[in-house]
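seq as requested:
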Amino acid sequence: MFKLSNRPEKFRRASDSLVTSIEDEMSRIMDEFFQEGGRPRTMFAPQMDIRETKDEVEVKVDLPGMKKEDVEILVEDSVLTIRGEKKEEKKEGGEDEKYHLIERYRGSFERSVRLSHLVDSSKVKANFTDGTLCITMPKVEEAKPRKIEIS
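C-alpha cells:
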C-alpha cells in the first residue's frame, strides 16, 4: 500500500494538497448529484420494452402510480415520445405527523425513441392498465417486409 509518510516532506505536502483537492471535488460532485433527502436528482426515465412483429411495433412502459390523464404520447416521423408527470402525493398532517424519508420519484419525465420502421400514426392505439402503458403501432405498408421473386 502507498504511504504518504514514507515520501520526502516536499512531496508529502504536495500529495496531501492533491488528496484534499480530490476529496473537495468529490464532495462537490456528490452534493450536486444528491438533493435534500438523499434522493438523486436524475430525471425519471420509465422502463420500456419494444417488440416488433411483421405487422406492428408494440411498446410497453412501466408507469406505476400514474394515471392515464398524466401521460401524453406523440408519434412523429419515426420517433415515439412519451411524456408525463408523476404528481406529488405527500400529505402532512399536524405537528405530530411528518415524513422521515422520501425516495419515490415525483416530477415530469420525457422519453423519446427512434423506431426502426415507419408506423401509421393515425392507427396508433394506447391502453393503460395496472400501471403499464401499452402502445400498438401498425407499420405502414412499405415498411413491412416483402418477399421478392427473382425472374
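The CA atoms of residues 93 and 111 lie 35 Å apart.
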